[in-house]
Each structure stands twice: as structure tokens, then as C-alpha cells.
């Protein structure tokens, strides 16, 4: 063995022997001087305390910290000077292990290298006045003598906590932090500036409430990791460098600054690739209950800061959070945003210097792009302010094919086949239970080349285009063009106060609609007369169904005034020109306020209404007819639901006042025997052609006269219609074939009873008489008193009228 190695081994042996002897000396000293050592330890621990730490006993644990000497303090209590008032022990431990410096022990000083606290409870209490039991660590009053030696300050190199219950209860600030600490290991150094340390912790969070009235953050979550801490004596602050902590099993990078003098703190939080739900469950119930109404499918990145200035002025700490969402699916109460991208930010102090709380909170989304029910959305900035009474504002832009909306609107009222939509809307809306209510909208929606089926009414609109303009509460439609079958419509409309009434009183919405058509086929609009078609069920979200149902209801109950001008209107056999109509839609009724039209060589004007009913529709019509061709008129209206006197039996020109009511089917047909009312008419230059009752009279009594073409120069009459019966008021008919008086009831079914007084005198012989002479001579000579009644075969027979006047 080389000489230098032998010398080295001898030196090491001597050193080891000295260490062992020193340790034995220290152990012997402790064993023989327990009371004195305990008193020295407590004296060292009590230095600079405004209170007292006590222990019931001490036992040496010699091998625990070799080569140091350890003792175990039992029954340790740490109480501040006002413990008798609040009764909260700052520290209560069954066992505290203290490791002592052997050399300092031998020379008569007690230097503590390490403290391990086991099976203990720590309760840091602040009462409603702001007094805290941590005041035990404040400097003693100035009158007390302080040691100038640095060694007088307690400098523990190692601190271990095992199985510790830690509670921080601040009654003044309504804060409560409660931890079950499985382990904390702190390795400390003491430079002149303060101290630094590495702190390894493993704990369970029972309560982490910045405001006990709003609930706890991190409830029942685990907390595990290592912190790098530094205490600055000049700043009187503890600084935690950003380090990774596992919270609930997910890594968070957390840094902090804690101002001990002001009880202020600032915490920074960074976490990447975490699920939104996992984040929400880390927050207090008043926040998480709201956030969990939303969903984000894929993980997101979050940056946050929690700052409390220690003043207690606002109650809550200042919170700022930023999130980044990329190519994600975001679920909201009104549906799902797919392919969603945005940067989000939250603060509970939107106005700098203002209060901290819901009233001054805001959520901001920037550069948001997404698809909403297949419609692409783009929002540069979207803001929700005042979370106590949330108001959302933002500019929404989108351009998409209308077919993207199919199966997306909840009730399937609309089916889109072609067309595009281009919208640019600035919206402001209240948020009630996470739904937009009473929005105020400015902007426009342009629809072009649309092919739209309105399912409830089976209306198929093609080549449709319109510009919808929103001006806050008002709505207008411009440049509207629709084609329904062969009908073309150009429309414009305005709706005042639409946004308010839509949600509060939709039945008070008044749509002022102007429509012009070069040609209009009225039968293509008959679906408006029928009941709404039952709709297929939709797979859309409940909220979208509710919104679509709400829109559908508004369309049905709102009121509409229509000013309609039509160059040519066609309905089955009816053709009219220059139609000018003022029509109102109210609830279940269509009201014809004023309609005028050129028809059959004359003019028609009418007013009335149609009331929609389940099986058919009721109508009332008041009409004035001026010099129309009676043949064409009867033909156009399908002989008014009867087949006795038809357009084939009539010639001449008709002027009339008509007041009738009746029933019309959902397909637009007048129901037989449903009409009631009164017709006052005048026939001019007329003729009754092949009218069966007249022809039969001719066969009965006037075989030598032409009763198949009876010409009438002028005829005034009144008809009262009662269902299937027409009451003929007494009329004097002067014709080319005969003169006669007529009255009675003509029945479309059974019940015909028409009395006719027919003089045999031939009118041809009276052609040279004056008008007054004709009246006097009219009933001279033989007069036949006949009656038209029902026959057994359902037709009409003529018999003598024995009961004539």
C-alpha cells in the first residue's frame, strides 16, 4: 500500500472517530440534561415570537439525524398572545422532531438544523377585525432588547411536514383554505437577503375559497410537485418561481408572489392541452355551474392570473384568464359550433380602477370562426359584459349556401334547395339563462337565387332574392323577388319595433307589405286558406327547436297589411286586370279592406274577409259590380256554386250590389248551399237563353213564342239567398217573348215554390205604345197564374197556381 494512501486512511479514521465521539458526547449530554435542552430549544423557538410555543416532554431520538443529534418534542402547542380570545391554536402537534447541531450543543448553544412536524394541525386564523394569530411571528415591541447577532435568528435548514391538517381561515375577507398535507419537504438556505428554499409537497385540497359565499376552487383535488421559493427581507414577500405542479393529475405551471405585510398575492397559472370540463371542475361552483353549460370537445390552452392587493376593498381577487381554441367543437345552449377557432379572455375588472365582481366582468372572444348548423360564421370581436346582467355584443359575418341550413332549424318549416346567404350583423342582446334574449340588431342579410319550400303551407318559391335590413328594433325588406309557380312577386316591407315585439307581443307585430306582380295565379296561393301541415320531427337541439317554433309562431300570429297591385290576376276561370288590393292578415283571418279590378268588360270592387276554420273557411263579401258581362261574370265565379242559372243561360251586362257570406273549401271552392246574403242587381240589354223553367212554360202555354231566347232590355231585382234557397222578391220582367211577374223561392234542392203571373198578351203588339200605356196594358186580357214546384224526380214542374193573389 502506498504511503499517501495509508496517511489518508489514518486521517479519515481519526475524523470519523472524532465525529462519533462528538455525537456520543452530544447524545450523552442530551440524555443527562433533558430539561435544560428542552428549555434551550423552546427558548430558541420562542425568539421573536409574540406568543409562546410549549411542549409537554422531550425524548432523544439519537439515530434519526446522525451525525446530528435529534430530539422529539411531544404535545407541542403554539399560541399567540390573544389565544384566550379566539381559541384557535396556531400549531398543535403530537410529535415534532428537532435536529440539533452537536458542536453548538457542546459549547452551550442550541442551533436547530431540522424540524419535522408529524400528525399535527395548523390553524391560521384572522378574525373579523383583521387580527391574525400569525402576529405571533411579528417583531417584538421596540422596548424589548434585540440581539444583533445573526445567530439569534432561527435558521432551520430542513423542514418536514407529515400528515398535517392546514387551515387558513380569514373571517374578515371571507377566505377559507383547508388542506390535508401528506408531505411537505423544505430545504432552506439563509442568505443576507432573506431565505431561499426548495419545497416538495403532496397534499389534498379540501377547500380553496377566495370568497366563502361563492364556494371553493380545487375542491377535493390533489396537489403535488416541487416549488422554488425565495423570501425577500426588503420586500417582506415570498416569491415562488414558476414550477410545474400536478393539480388533479394534470400539470400546471404556477408562479406567485405573496406580500406578507399586506396579505396580498399574485398567482400566475399556465396549462396546456387540458379539457375544458376538467378546468371548469377546478373552479368554484358559482363559476363551474355556468361554465358546464358549455362544452369544448378537444383540449385547450389556458393562461391565467389571480391578483389580490390585500386591501379587501372588493372582496374577490382580480382574475384574468386567456384561452386558445383551435379546430374544436364548442357546445352552447343553442347548438354546437363546429370547426371552431378563437382566442378568449375573461376578467372580473373590465374597467380599470372599477369594482371587481360580476358587474364589471367581461368575456371577450376575438377572431372567432366556426360553423353553426353548417353555416360558417366569422366574428372579429364578440364581448359579454356585466355577468350580473349579461349583455353580448359583436359583429357577425357569414356567407354560405342556403342548403346548409336544411335539417338545422329545429322544426323543418323551411327546406332550401338552392341560393346563397350573405350576412353582416352587429348584434347586442341580453343573456338570460345563457340564451340571447331581445337582441338589438343592425346590419343586413342578402339572399340570392333561393329555392325555398315553406313546408307548413306547401309554398314553393323559386328564383327568390331579397335584402333584409335590420335597424336596431326595426326591420325592412327591400328588392324582394319571388316566383311561385307561374306567379311573380316583387315585394318590399317594413316592420316597426320588430325586435321588441318578437319576444314580448308577437301578435302586435304589424308588417306593412307592398307587392307588385306582372301576373298572379291566385290558385297558387290557396295553401294560405288551409290549415298548417304537420311537420316532421327534427334532430336539432331543444333550444334550436324552441327558437324555430318561436319564429314559426311569430309568422303565424303577426299581423300583416298588404298593398297589392297586379297587372293580370288569374284564378281558375277568373281573369282580371289592373288589380289594386288592400289586404290585411290578422290571426286566423284574411281581410279584404278594398279591392278593385277590371273584369269582364266592367269594374268590380269588394271588401270582406275569410276566417280560417279546421274543416273549411267562412267568408263575408260586400261587392259592387259595374257593367260587367253577366255571361263572363257567372263563368268566372263558377256560377256561384249552383247549376240552375249558369253562364250559358245569360247575356247582357250586370251591375249589382252583393252582400253574401258562405263557406269556401281549403282548395278555394265555394261549398254548395253555404251562401247566405242579398243581391240587388240590374240587367241591361240582357237575354235569358235556354233557361229550363222558361222553356217549359213556353211548351205549356206559348208554343208559338220563342222562350229559348228571351231578351230583356232592363231588369231590376233583389235576391235573398238562404243556403240552398233563393228568395226572389216580386219582379216585373218585361221581355221580348212575354211580360210576367215573378216571386217565390227557388231551391237548389227541394222546396222550389215560384209563383208566376203571365199574361197571354204578346208584347210584340204593344211596341207602339208609350211607356205608361205599356204599364196599363201589361196585365190586360187573359193572365195565366202558374207555379213552379218540385216534381217527383227531383226536377221542376209547372202547375196552375190556384192560390194566386
TrEMBL record:
Residues 1-238 form the AsmA domain. InterPro entries: AsmA (IPR007844), AsmA-related (IPR052894). Coiled coil: none annotated. It comes from the Bacteria. Pfam families: AsmA. This is AsmA family protein. It comes from Pedobacter fastidiosus.
Amino acid at each position: 500500500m502506498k504511503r499517501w494512501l495509508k496517511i489518508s486512511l489514518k486521517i479519515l479514521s481519526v475524523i470519523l472517530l472524532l465525529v462519533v465521539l462528538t455525537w456520543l458526547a452530544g447524545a450523552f449530554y442530551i440524555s443527562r440534561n433533558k430539561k435544560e435542552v428542552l428549555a434551550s430549544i423552546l427558548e430558541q423557538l420562542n425568539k421573536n415570537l409574540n406568543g409562546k410555543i410549549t411542549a409537554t416532554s422531550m425524548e432523544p431520538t439519537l439515530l434519526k439525524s446522525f451525525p446530528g443529534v435529534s430530539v422529539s418534542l411531544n404535545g407541542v402547542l403554539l399560541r399567540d398572545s390573544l389565544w384566550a380570545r379566539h381559541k384557535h391554536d396556531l400549531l398543535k402537534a403530537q410529535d415534532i422532531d428537532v435536529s440539533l447541531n452537536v458542536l453548538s450543543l457542546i459549547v452551550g448553544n442550541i442551533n436547530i438544523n431540522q424540524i419535522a412536524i408529524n400528525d399535527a394541525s395548523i390553524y391560521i386564523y384572522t378574525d373579523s377585525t383583521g387580527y391574525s394569530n400569525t402576529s405571533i411571528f411579528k417583531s417584538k415591541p421596540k422596548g424589548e432588547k434585540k440581539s444583533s447577532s445573526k445567530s439569534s435568528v432561527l435558521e432551520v435548514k430542513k423542514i418536514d411536514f407529515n400528515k398535517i391538517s392546514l387551515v387558513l381561515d380569514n373571517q374578515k375577507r371571507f377566505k377559507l383554505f383547508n388542506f390535508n398535507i401528506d408531505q411537505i419537504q423544505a430545504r432552506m438556505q439563509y442568505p443576507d437577503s432573506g431565505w431561499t428554499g426548495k419545497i416538495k409537497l403532496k397534499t389534498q385540497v379540501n377547500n380553496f375559497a377566495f370568497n366563502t359565499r361563492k364556494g371553493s376552487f380545487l375542491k377535493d383535488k390533489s396537489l403535488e410537485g416541487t416549488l422554488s421559493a425565495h423570501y425577500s427581507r426588503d420586500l417582506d414577500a415570498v416569491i415562488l418561481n414558476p414550477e410545474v405542479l400536478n393539480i388533479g393529475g394534470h400539470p400546471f405551471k404556477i408562479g406567485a408572489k405573496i406580500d406578507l405585510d399586506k396579505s396580498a398575492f399574485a398567482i400566475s397559472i399556465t396549462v396546456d392541452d387540458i379539457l375544458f370540463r376538467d378546468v371548469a371542475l377546478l373552479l368554484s361552483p358559482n363559476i363551474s355551474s355556468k361554465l358546464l353549460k358549455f362544452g369544448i370537445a378537444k383540449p385547450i390552452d389556458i393562461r391565467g392570473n389571480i391578483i389580490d392587493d390585500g386591501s379587501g376593498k372588493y372582496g374577490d381577487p382580480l382574475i384574468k384568464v386567456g384561452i386558445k381554441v383551435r379546430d374544436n367543437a364548442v357546445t352552447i345552449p343553442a347548438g354546437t359550433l363546429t370547426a371552431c377557432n378563437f382566442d378568449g379572455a375573461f376578467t372580473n375588472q373590465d374597467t380599470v380602477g372599477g369594482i371587481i365582481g360580476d358587474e364589471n366582468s367581461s368575456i371577450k372572444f376575438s377572431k372567432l370562426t366556426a360553423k353553426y348548423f353548417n353555416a360558417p360564421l366569422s366574428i372579429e370581436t364578440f364581448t359579454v359584459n356585466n355577468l350580473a346582467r349579461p349583455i353580448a355584443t359583436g359583429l357577425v359575418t357569414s356567407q354560405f349556401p342556403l342548403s346548409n341550413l336544411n335539417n338545422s332549424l329545429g322544426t323543418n318549416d323551411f327546406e332550401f334547395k338552392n341560393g346563397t346567404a350573405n350576412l353582416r350583423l352587429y348584434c347586442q342582446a341580453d343573456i338570460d339563462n345563457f340564451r340571447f334574449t331581445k337582441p338589438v340588431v343592425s346590419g343586413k342579410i342578402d339572399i340570392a337565387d333561393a329555392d325555398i319550400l315553406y313546408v307548413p303551407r306547401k309554398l314553393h318559391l323559386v328564383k327568390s332574392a331579397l335584402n333584409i335590413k335590420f335597424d336596431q328594433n326595426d326591420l325592412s325588406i327591400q328588392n324582394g323577388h319571388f316566383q311561385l309557380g307561374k306567379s311573380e312577386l316583387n315585394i318590399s316591407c317594413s316592420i316597426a319595433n320588430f325586435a321588441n315585439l318578437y319576444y314580448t307581443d308577437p301578435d302586435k307585430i304589424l308588417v306593412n307589405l307592398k307587392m307588385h306582380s306582372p301576373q298572379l295565379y291566385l290558385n297558387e296561393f290557396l295553401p294560405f286558406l288551409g290549415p298548417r301541415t304537420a311537420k316532421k320531427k327534427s334532430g336539432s337541439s331543444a333550444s334550436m327547436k324552441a327558437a324555430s317554433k318561436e319564429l314559426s309562431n311569430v309568422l303565424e300570429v303577426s299581423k300583416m297589411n298588404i298593398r297589392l297591385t297586379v297587372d293580370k290576376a288569374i284564378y281558375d276561370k277568373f281573369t282580371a286586370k289592373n288589380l289594386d288590393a288592400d289586404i290585411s292578415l290578422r290571426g286566423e283571418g284574411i281581410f279584404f279592406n278594398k279591392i278593385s279590378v277590371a273584369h269582364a268588360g266592367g269594374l268590380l270592387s269588394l271588401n270582406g274577409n275569410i276566417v280560417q276554420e279546421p274543416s273549411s273557411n267562412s267568408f263575408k263579401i260586400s261587392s259592387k259590380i259595374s257593367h260587367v258581362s253577366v255571361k263572363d261574370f257567372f263563368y268566372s265565379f263558377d256560377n256561384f256554386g249552383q247549376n240552375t242559372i249558369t253562364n250559358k243561360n245569360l247575356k247582357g251586362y250586370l251591375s249589382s250590389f252583393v252582400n253574401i257570406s258562405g263557406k269556401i273549401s281549403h282548395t278555394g271552392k265555394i261549398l254548395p248551399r253555404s251562401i247566405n246574403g242579398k243581391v240587388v242587381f240590374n240587367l241591361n240589354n240582357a237575354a235569358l237563353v235556354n233557361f229550363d223553367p222558361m222553356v217549359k212554360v213556353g211548351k205549356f202555354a206559348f208554343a208559338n213564342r220563342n222562350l229559348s231566347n228571351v231578351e230583356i232590355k232592363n231588369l231590376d231585382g233583389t235576391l235573398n239567398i238562404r243556403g240552398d234557397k233563393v228568395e226572389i222578391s216580386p219582379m216585373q220582367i218585361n221581355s221580348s217573348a212575354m211580360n210576367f211577374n215573378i216571386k217565390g223561392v227557388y231551391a237548389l234542392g227541394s222546396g222550389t215554390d215560384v209563383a208566376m203571373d203571365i199574361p197571354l198578351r204578346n208584347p210584340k203588339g204593344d211596341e207602339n205604345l208609350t211607356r205608361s200605356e205599356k204599364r196599363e196594358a201589361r196585365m190586360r186580357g187573359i193572365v195565366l197564374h202558374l207555379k213552379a214546384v218540385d216534381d217527383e224526380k227531383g226536377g221542376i214542374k209547372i202547375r196552375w197556381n190556384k192560390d194566386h193573389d
